[in-house]
Amino acid sequence: MIYECHMHIFMNGCNYRQAAAQYKQGVDEADIREKLAAYAREGVTFLRDGGDHYGASLLAARIAPEYGITYRTPVFAIHKNGHYGGIVGRGFDTMKDYRHLVREAGSAGADFIKIMISGILDFEREGALTEASLTAGEIREMIHIAHEEGFAVMAHTNGAEAVRAAAAAGVDSIEHGNFMDEDCMQALQDSRAVWVPTLVTIANLIGSGRYDDVSLRCLKEKAGALIQRGFELGVKIAPGSDAGAYRVPHVHGIEDEYRELWELAQSVMTREEFEEKMEDAGREIETRFCCGRC
Questions:
Q1: Phi-psi region at 274: left, alpha or beta (left = phi > 0; alpha = psi -120 to 50)
Q2: How far is Cα 86 from Cα 246, in angstroms, rounded to an integer?
Q3: What's the CA dihedral at 119, 122, 127, 131 to 10 degrees?
Q4: pLDDT at residue 124 tops 80
Q5: Of 18, 203, 244, 274, which is the most exposed, with the fewest CB atoms less than 10 Å away?
Q6: Distance CA 156, CA 193 (A)
Q7: Paired strand residues for 113
Q8: How far apart are the C-alpha atoms of 278 and 141, rounded to whole Å?
Q9: What's the pTM value of the predicted model, to 2 decimals?
Q10: What is the pLDDT of residue 292?
Q11: Digit-coded pLDDT (tens) for 133-190
Q12: Residue 293: its pLDDT value, please?
């Protein structure tokens, strides 16, 4: 079974603005069906969406069983206003507002809650993020509220402080996880969190001309070293490509991610062991990110 544990059905892998404009006019069912059919043809039978503004992932979850696909969605991601996350979700100002959004997502049919607690890689400044993460207190409270409401939590997380805070708060999955340190790796090893590194969001940019390739290769090397360390420590690592992001096409993105992960894992395990670990981590996400409705 092939798992794709992080994707966005409405994005097209080429141009976010174009995809957003397409869906702003209404959910494009034909586009969703075309993507689901492509995943089914390649044997990808589990998809976990990262959310959107438009109801695209909610429709995808409803019709995915027609293609033999299990689909999980948060409906929309949740971010603090003034911070990164608006491209895939809705914002809050107070924790009271946040709890309201959690409940609203649940009423709409969310399988889990996705939170945005850090910025993204700043490809113009090597080794930097676009903004600082939320505070450890905010991260802890957001995860606690979602758990209290009965949801697993998928956290968009970059930077060592954010990863440590999320792991300590009992987050269910860490997405991306760039710029971690050894303490983060130990925290993940000791936690119940599954890490979805989405390495191809960096690797597939090399040669695109959008950013400096030397910097990209350096970022990929550092991210790869962390993933390899994760495999050595037995951290639960799951395959997810962030399909729909720039240069990460649907279907091919997860094929690229499996290949990148295997290249990093082969120094510490056999191919059979690697496939088993991918299966186990994917199955754990499939089971945990279900809100008890499965």
A1: alpha
A2: 17
A3: -30
A4: no
A5: 18
A6: 13
A7: 153
A8: 30
A9: 0.97
A10: 59
A11: 999 999 999 999 999 999 999 999 999 999 999 999 999 999 999 999 999 999 999 9
A12: 57
Q: Which two tokens stand for residue 25?
A: 């006019």
- Report whether pLDDT(126) > 90: no
Secondary structure (DSSP) of the chain = -EEEEEE-TT--SS-HHHHHHHHHTS--HHHHHHHHHHHHHTTEEEEEE---SSSHHHHHHHHGGGGT-EEE--SSEEEETTSS-TTTEEEESSHHHHHHHHHHHHHHT-SSEEEE-S--B-TTSTT-BSSPPPPHHHHHHHHHHHHHTT--EEEEE-SHHHHHHHHHTT-SEEEE-TT--HHHHHHHHHSSPEEE--THHHHTTTTSSSS-HHHHHHHHHHHHHHHHHHHHHT--B-----BTBTT--TTHHHHHHHHHHHHHHTTTS-HHHHHHHHHHHHHHHHHHTTTT--
pLDDT level of residue 123 (50, 70, 90 thresholds): confident
Length of the chain: 294
What's the sign of the alpha-carbon dihedral 225, 229, 231, 237? negative
